[in-house]
Structure prediction request, 83 residues.
Amino acid sequence: MRQREIILQNISEAREQLEEIERFLLNPEYEECELRIDLEHAYHHLNYAWNIRDESDAALAEHSAENFAKWSQYPAGDIHEFS
Prediction:
């Protein structure tokens, strides 16, 4: 793993988002559409943390829109669903 610092930052962001969701769920006015957006944000950080783990510093510095989209995707080939 080359990108430990960025992985750590994204894990921290995901944890903060999940803790926020926990607080929001105590409010009966919190809607499913809000939950979806908030969970997508948490997933983004987890996916990003996994997908950038071995990327070069140069690729991260470039941070192209194409790489950002790729790094944000669920790593279906690496992580398998539970059945």
